[in-house]
From TrEMBL:
Pfam families cross-referenced by the UniProt entry: PA26 (PF04636)
Name under which the protein is recorded: SESN3 protein
PANTHER family, sorted: P53 REGULATED PA26 NUCLEAR PROTEIN SESTRIN (PTHR12474), SESTRIN 3 (PTHR12474:SF1)
Species per Swiss-Prot/TrEMBL record: Fregata magnificens (Magnificent frigatebird)
SUPFAM superfamilies recorded: AhpD-like (SSF69118)
Location in the cell: Cytoplasm
Start and end residues of each stretch annotated as Disordered: 207-239
């Protein structure tokens, strides 16, 4: 039940890691509009959109630890309508955030037995964006470890066994304050595994038959042979492949400790990313940062409705922008700030967000085609990332540089989703 693999990778940039952990802890474990079990269930819904077993399993355990109803883990049909109504926004934000409108907001906030408050909705939106973006990082850095058939382990762990990040880096300049924070954080604490395994086993017995498991395994094997390399400008919709093996995670006694089939946590599984409108199409859809920006609009709105989260998010955005990338930029023959801005603006461009003061011809000059393919895949359909792509696109980068680029993807994607969602909330309020 740990974010161990994530903290190991982010540990190449300790200052960013500290900022990330503070935000993660605040979202999941500190005072806020949403009940703690609902927070983890929303995280499950978000991670399932990208088939991210690593995050789904983490939050399933923490959901139960927070006192959540085990029946909810049977799928969306077994949760309260209020939570289930969040599915539409979850789906849109994960794949095509430009489609979200004030009507989606109004539908959730309208007065009824299952209505959301504005503060609850903002908390939920931040959670969804956070987990979608974190799924990109998980796949991009290979944290989706090999947990049985179909698992992916792109990178070797930094440290052996179950050593936590702080123990692994204690001799490498990890500050005492960071050690204290990480050890204290409940998101990385030990879980009461015996009782959780018993609950998971009960759920498994109730919901899964041996025949269904056999069919899932068969579908997975067929699906693995159909994966193809993703093109950078093919304009094709990439459907989620639910046949990728979500086999139960079991210990030596065969007790189930993880998700078996993520399809039960989503509706409309074929809904995926599509290329944003081309230049020769109607440009009214384009999101212009000059009209609605994080600094001038989003920050104040989110901070007003969900106290202090704006400051934490803003610190995280600034932290990733301040990370050093001189070697990376030198290879591309430009200044570090120019290289980082090129990556950031390219990611936002894929979501229809444009900066009037930026020359987009720079993107093609700064980012070679194979790097663009990698960035687009991790950003838009991270579940398609595989070890072959990782090895092929990143030979000239150091490991810390690879992590840095994936951090840029994480933060740029999260900000893009937040901009669309917060703009829709603003329009509803107006």
């Amino acid at each position: 039940g740990r974010l161990e693999a994530v903290t190991q990778q982010m540990g190449y940039h300790p200052q960013y890691l500290d900022s990330f952990l503070k935000t993660q802890h605040y979202l999941m474990h500190m005072d806020g509009p949403l009940p703690f079990d609902c927070r983890h269930y929303i995280a499950i819904m978000a991670a399932a959109r990208h088939q991210c077993r690593y995050l789904v399993n983490l939050h399933m355990l923490q959901f139960l630890r927070a006192g959540g109803d085990p029946q909810w883990l049977r799928g969306l049909d077994f949760i309260p309508p209020k939570l289930r109504n969040l599915n539409e926004i979850n789906k849109i934000l994960a794949h095509r955030p430009w489609l979200i409108t004030k009507d989606h907001i109004e539908k959730l906030l309208k007065i009824s037995e299952w209505s959301w408050s504005l503060a609850e909705l903002v908390h939920a939106v931040v959670l969804l964006a956070h987990c979608h973006a974190l799924a990109s990082f998980v796949f991009g850095c290979g944290c989706e470890q090999d947990e049985g058939p179909g698992g992916r382990g792109l990178l070797k762990p930094l440290s052996p066994g179950n050593q936590c990040f702080c123990e692994a880096t204690a001799g490498n300049g990890c500050s005492q304050e960071l050690l204290r924070i990480n050890r204290k954080r409940s998101l990385d604490s030990c879980m009461e595994l015996d009782s959780l395994r018993e609950r998971m086993q009960r759920i498994h017995v109730e919901t899964e038959s041996r025949e269904e498991t056999r069919l899932l395994q068969q579908d997975r094997e067929e699906g693995e042979g159909q994966e193809a390399e993703v093109g950078v400008q093919d304009g094709t919709e990439h459907h989620s492949d639910l046949s990728v093996g979500f086999s139960p995670l079991a210990d030596t006694d065969g007790e189930v400790t993880g998700a078996t089939n993520l399809a039960c946590y989503m509706q409309d599984p074929d809904f995926g990313y599509q290329d944003f409108a081309r230049r020769d199409e109607d440009q009214t859809q384009v999101f212009r940062v000059q009209d609605y920006s994080w600094e001038d609009h989003g920050f104040s709105l989110v901070n007003r409705l969900y106290s202090d989260i704006g400051h934490l998010l803003d610190e995280k955005f600034r932290m990733v922008d301040g990370l050093q990338s001189s070697a990376m930029a030198k290879r591309q023959g430009c200044e570090p700030s120019v290289f980082k801005r090129g990556i950031w603006n390219y990611i936002h461009c894929m979501f229809g967000i444009r900066y009037d003061d930026y020359d987009y011809a720079e993107v093609n000059q700064l980012l070679e085609r194979m790097l663009k393919v990698y960035i687009k895949t991790v950003t838009c359909y991270p579940e398609k990332t595989n070890s072959e792509m990782f090895d092929r696109f990143w030979k000239q980068f150091k490991h810390s540089e690879k992590v840095h680029v994936n951090l840029l993807i994480l933060e740029a994607r999260m900000q893009a989703e937040l901009l669309y969602a917060l703009q829709a909330i603003t329009q509803y309020m107006i």
